[in-house]
Specification:
With about 210 residues, the protein is of the alpha/beta class. About 55% of the residues lie in helices and about 15% in strands. A 5-stranded parallel sheet has the order 2-3-1-4-5, with helices on both faces.
Length: about 210
């Protein structure tokens, strides 16, 4: 049986560079011989792709806050069952663009849903699967929005919403420094990449 895999989540406000840095990290790990799975939430499965459309691009009839939460959790449950769980069981390194911390930051801190309820429901959806490391790519919310690509529903939220998201991420990181690593996303890309890789390799217990 292969050794258990590792789950590493890339988190941050809009425009923080999560997707870019995730791909760069995957390249570096593959060069070191790791088997890496790159995925994202929402949309890491066929079912998730349909939910992503509803969550990110439904402007005329957006989901209510609790409906939004349950759609994200349904996506996560399917994602774990179909992609993350089997990959971890096969000993692979799974890099996911967003996971539980985003749900807590966006639907809890930013939308104002009861945090304890959001955390509990997410725990049920995760089915015992937790990230071994959560990377918070941190930058001021306004700066992130200025460099964010696309025009999804969340990009249209007010700046105060995104500032609450950032506050949520940093609050979680401060509470669990053993599981979170905050990286200054405003630094040059090469420095950000090096700091992320250092944290990931430490998580993987490799040099």
């Amino acid at each position: 049986m292969p050794d258990a895999g590792r789950l590493i989540a890339f988190e941050g406000v809009e425009g923080a560079g999560k997707s870019t840095q995730l791909h760069l990290t995957a390249e570096s790990l593959r060069e070191r011989g790791h088997c890496v799975v790159e995925t994202r939430e929402p949309g890491g499965t066929a079912l998730g792709a349909q939910m992503r459309r509803l969550l990110m691009h439904e402007y005329d009839h957006p989901p209510a806050p609790f409906a939004e939460l349950f759609l994200y959790l349904a996506d996560r449950a399917q994602h774990i069952a179909e992609v993350i769980g089997p990959s971890l069981a096969a000993g692979q390194v799974v890099l996911t663009d967003r996971f539980s911390a985003s749900t807590i930051a966006y639907q809890g801190y930013a939308r104002g849903l009861d945090l304890a309820t959001v955390v509990l429901l997410d725990e049920r959806a995760r089915q015992g699967v937790s990230p071994d490391l959560t990377l918070i790519l941190d930058c001021p919310a306004e700066a992130g929005l200025q460099r964010a690509h696309g025009d999804d529903r969340f990009h249209r939220e007010r700046l105060a919403f995104h500032e609450r998201v950032r506050h949520g991420f940093l609050t979680m990181a401060k509470a669990r420094p053993d599981l979170y690593r905050v990286v200054d996303a405003t630094a040059p890309s090469a420095i950000v990449r090096a700091q992320i890789l250092e944290a990931v390799l430490e998580c993987l217990n490799t040099e």
